[in-house]
Each structure stands twice: as structure tokens, then as C-alpha cells.
Amino acid sequence: MSLLPILCYPDPRLHKVAKPVQTVDARIRTLIADMFETMYDAKGIGLAATQVDVHERLIVIDTSEQRDQPLVLINPEIVWTSAEKHVNEEGCLSVPGIYDGVERFDAVRVSALDGEGTARTIEAQGMLAVCVQHEMDHLLGKVFVEYLSPLKRDRIKTKMRKLQRAERS
Ligand code: K2U
Ligand code: ZN
Fold first, then answer.
1. Could you tell me the pTM of the whole model?
2. Which of 16, 53, 67, 135 could form a disulfide with 48 if both were Cys (CB 3.0 to 4.6 A apart)?
3. Which residues surround ligand 2, an ion (CB under 5 A)?
């Protein structure tokens, strides 16, 4: 398994729209393993393939306390959303150190293929529901800072560019 580099905002590749996975083959299974290793190493609870510069509809998630309940969503589609929504504080492995409120559905039902290529439907509530919606935005090329005001977003862009310049020097 390998650690994969995570794209950092405002990298334009984060705004590419992911294509459906055609076949759950050895390449995808290796990518899934590498994405989990990368997510756990980065202390994240979710990771979208877009964030590691692979533009296919694949998400890995583990919201468990013990970090032992991996969830793979291939070609995920939200098929139901709750009437209720709430604002939750979100962060993003592609926007390190930035946290802000985003309104999400309290609960969602998601149909997807699992890591074996079997069709599944999951009901998500709480943090899992927030994470699913956050990751599915990534597959559409959307980063959570795009829900914030233009002023906040510009300040975040400036901060991220400074951080990346400092890392290069
Ligand atoms: O997509 C990512 O960058 C992974 C996010 C997923 C996430 C964002 C907001 C709310 C829930 C999940 C990372 O896990 S951000 C780090 C983090 C860790 C625990 C709780 C919230 C955020
Ligand atoms: Zn994110």
C-alpha cells in the first residue's frame, strides 16, 4: 500500500468532475487500499478519489471511533434526503487548518457499489451523513469553502497559497 499526495485548495484539479468507475478491478482495489492508508494517516474520516488526483467516482469513509469500520462507495448516488438540514462545522484534508459551517441534510440514503462491486444501499445519519455529502461534493469538483462568502473564500485562497509557498521554500 502507498500514501498518496492530497491535492490542496485552490488546485484546479479539485474542480474536475469525476467519471463513473467502469470496472471494480485490481487497479481500483489497489486505489481503495491506498486511499484508506492515506485517509487514516491524515487523520481524516473520509477521502474522495478527486483529492488524490484520480477523477473517478470513488469514496472511502471511516467515521468509527476505533477506526475499524471502513466504508467504500463506488459510483455513489443519493436516492433520498431528509427534510431537515442543519449547519455543521466542516474541515477538509484539501484545505488544512480551515473549519467553517456548512448546511447539510440531516440524513441521506445512498446507493453505491461496495469494494467488491456489489450493489448496496446505506442509510446515513449524523456525522456519516455529513461526510457522505462532503465527499460526494468532491466527486462533483466542489470544495466546502465554495459554500462560504466570496470574502472568506478569497482569504482562504490567500492563506493556502502562502502555506504552499512556505512548504516549497
Ligand atoms: O474530504 C475530506 O477532506 C475529508 C474530511 C471529511 C469530512 C469533512 C467534514 C465533516 C466530516 C467529514 C476530513 O475528514 S476533514 C477532518 C475531519 C475529521 C473529523 C471530523 C471532521 C473533519
Ligand atoms: Zn474534503
1. 0.97
2. 135
3. 92
